[in-house]
Amino acid sequence: MVSPSAVTSRLLLIAATVYYLQRITTYLYFAPTVLSWTTATRPVPLPQVALWLDLDLARMILDLTVIAVLAAAALRRHASARFACPTVAAEGPGRR
């Protein structure tokens, strides 16, 4: 059986990898494509714009998935840390 912390670590690793791969695609494809459109002297073909929009929508869905995985891993780690640490009673005035 795999421990919960190992599962959380794997989730974090997968989410971080996907996040950085998305950043690379942004810098290598999405940003240059749009910037080339702003400097173009002729109109941009509509099929190219449609492809870019479809890929951008897929990228946004993947972003939401990464956010959900990171949030789940963070909540899971927080919950396991909260239950693993013993609590110490607060010492008030006169309680020693």
Short description:
This protein has two helices and no strands.
Q: How does this structure look, described?
A:
This protein has 96 residues and is an all-alpha fold. Helix 1 runs antiparallel to helix 2 (46-84). The chain contains two helices and no strands. The relative contact order is 0.13. The protein starts with a helix and ends in a 12-residue tail after the last helix. It has helices spanning 4-39, 46-84. The mean pLDDT is 81.
Topology:
Blueprint (H helix, E strand, L loop, with lengths): L3 H36 L6 H39 L12
Helix pairs in contact: 1-2
Task: Name the features.
elongated
- What distance lies between the first and last C-alpha atoms, to the nearest angstrom? 44 Å
Provide the residue-averaged pLDDT.
81
Proportion of residues in helical segments: over 70%
Our count of helices gives 2
Tell me the structural class. Answer: mainly alpha
Largest sheet: none
Count all strands and give the number.
0
Strand residue percentage: under 5%
Identify low-pLDDT runs. Answer: none
Question: What kind of oligomer do you see?
Answer: single chain
How would the global form be characterised? elongated
